[in-house]
Amino acid sequence: MWTWFYQLASPKWFYQFSNKLLPWFRAATFILFAAGLALGLLFSPLDYQQGNTVRILYIHVPAAFLSMFVYVLMALSGGIGFIWRIKMAHIVSVSCAPIGAIFTLLALITGAIWGKPTWGTYWVWDARLTSFLILLFLYLGFMALHNAFDDRKTADRAAAILALVGLVNIPIIHFSVEWWNSLHQGATISKFEKPSMDADMLKALLTMIVAFQVYFVTVLLQRVKAEILLREKLSGWVKKLVTNQ
Amino acid sequence: MYFQSFKEFIEMGGHGFYVWLCYGVVLSGLVSYFIYSKQLAKRNQRNLIKFYKRMDARSQLNANNQLNANNEAQ
User: Fold this and answer.
1) Which of A4, A60, A78, A137 is the most buried (most CB within 10 A)?
2) In sequence order, what DSSP letters do the residues of A1-29 get, joined into one string?
3) CB contacts, 8 Å: B3 with chain A
């Protein structure tokens, strides 16, 4: 029953597995984004205070959610690789970093653009915004640290430790709007309460979050494939795969 | 549908600039990164072909050198 789980740790098997999955994920990304954009831009109501700028929510919130989700995944798989010395875990962790950095950057940019018409400013140094900027620096630091070592194993282990230490920032980001006075509003969707938003808005937002998730898996698998080729270049199956083309 | 006309849809109640700028930045960012990461594996494969050629050439050279060294020793 657990064979498939062990096989995930084999780069060769993972490469073939992601080749099988990728067409489906690419198609799903496309369909979900088309649906999410239509729901968000056309079939969701205006906010009674913000009017049409509320439509930025449907890309800002998924980007912000994913940047935190990707960070947790990056840190956990880095930790798994560190403790059990699993090659694939490090490959996933390292492949997560640039994708997460892009989500973080997009969340910051859309937040700034959204801030101008609603708060009257692009940027303030308040708790939510600053802790989110730190998240971006953590991603960049992770990538820089990983690039700083010639030995890949040392690089993997050092970067994994950085990611695990930086994990402390995730709850800070989440609770920053409750712990400090912030311009940023609190969470609208919570696991424990009924969401405080219109059903059509919620539909559009959830579709977009799923679309971003599926996009992330697609891009991650594409990156992981490339990383496997580089790291396993001395193993026979990669040479066979590459030179037989 | 919450818009009466296409013009209204573009204007977004006077906030068209902010809304469309956001969607433009996010979509162009996501699409270009999608294409980049899709081509990454192919680029690595092309580089690896060169790498294997170099490796094969080098091991050929080493084998020849070894042969010469053996001949000289005899």
Assistant:
1) A78
2) --HHHHHTT-HHHHHHHHHHHHHHHHHHH
3) 42
Query: Which residues does chain B have within 8 Å of residue A233's beta carbon, measured at their own beta carbons?
Result: 48, 51
Among chain B, residues having any CB pair with chain A shorter than 8 Å are: 1-3, 9, 12-16, 18-19, 21-23, 25-26, 29-30, 33-34, 37-38, 40-41, 43-45, 48-49, 51-52
As a whole number of angstroms, the distance between CA A142 and CA A165 comes to: 11
pLDDT tens profile A151-173: 999 999 999 999 999 999 999 99
State how far the Cα of A114 lies from the Cα of A185, in Å rounded to an integer.
13
Flag if A52 and B12 touch (Cβ within 8 Å): yes
Residues A68-90 have pLDDT tens digits of: 999 999 999 999 999 999 999 99
CB contact under 8 A, A45 and B2: yes
For chain B, give every domain's residue range: 41-74
Return the percentage of chain B with pLDDT > 90, whole number: 53
For residues A187-205, average pLDDT:
78
